[in-house]
Design goal:
Shape: globular
Strand content: 25-35%
Strand order of the largest sheet: 3-4-2-1-16-15
């Protein structure tokens, strides 16, 4: 049997986190075959070799070209891909460095930093309207990704990880009642994950841990939220259900610090 270990982490700036001891120690490990980072906030010309190279791995970076120091994703892989792709094929959703797609022998792998909904739109009196500036872009991005994944899935299973910027169910955030009108927990956003899972994409953490409560991957820097575990689970590994029997383990590394997110991991067995 072959095991493949994968991990995903929104590091909230690769240049900043690379100076932090918890990250340095974590990144020095050799326990993962594939490492996906989101929100790298850097282009390759801003990075030194110690941020782009890891012994035994090949790295693949997608950087924002629309705005410096924004968005961005990266993958470090021990496994040599058959093919690589940066960004989604649809031009309207290119330019922010949000997707690294590697085709491996057994599956297509996507590492994604999916858009957040942005700031709330205010009326002429400065009051919130209940609408968020980037929610239409966010939902368009998700639809574009879904269509592409479904097309690729016809020939090979899908593994997708990353910061989805959506808590799916009430169990996935500490304070659901007070966040129903906030982006990240809007009905339209949650409906996408309903559609996604209904199409046969498995939330691997829930597959293993069922209804485990208080399991989060992101905490606001405000009000000592991480210390109090007032968090959200918005970082995921999904696999298409052709890989259901290959899911060996899925877990959250909530004892790893350095970002406002923590790593989430998946182990597949073939």
């Amino acid at each position: 049997m072959e095991k493949i270990s994968l991990v995903s982490w929104n590091i909230n700036g690769i240049r900043a986190i690379s100076k932090k001891e918890p990250f340095i120690d974590w990144f020095a490990q050799d326990k993962y075959d594939v490492i996906g980072f989101q929100e790298t906030k850097a282009s390759l010309d801003q990075l030194s070799d110690d941020m782009t190279k890891k012994e035994g791995y090949t790295s693949y970076f997608a950087s924002s070209i629309v705005k410096k120091g924004y968005s961005g994703t990266a993958v470090f892989s021990k496994i040599k891909p058959i093919a690589t792709e940066i960004e989604l094929p649809e031009e309207a959703f290119q330019g922010e460095g949000r997707i690294v797609h590697l085709e491996f022998d057994k599956f297509h792998f996507f590492n994604g930093y999916f858009p957040n909904g942005g700031a709330e739109i205010e009326d002429e009196n400065g009051k919130g309207t209940g609408e968020f500036k980037r929610v239409p872009y966010k939902m368009g991005f998700f639809d574009s990704f879904f269509k592409y994944a479904q097309e690729l899935r016809k020939s090979k299973p899908i593994v997708v990880c990353g910061d989805f910027n959506i808590a799916h169910k009430e169990i996935d955030l500490a304070r659901p009642k007070t966040n129903t009108k906030n982006t990240g927990f809007l009905p339209i956003e949650r409906a996408f994950l309903d559609k996604f899972t209904a199409a046969g994409y498995i939330d691997t953490f829930r597959h293993i841990h069922k209804d485990q409560k208080d399991a989060y991957s992101w905490w606001s820097y405000k009000s000592r939220a991480r210390e109090k575990n007032v968090g959200w689970r918005i970082d995921y590994f999904f696999v298409s259900d052709e890989l259901k029997d290959n899911i060996k383990d899925a877990y959250i590394e909530n004892d790893v610090f350095g970002s406002d997110h923590c790593p989430v991991a998946l182990v597949l067995e073939f």
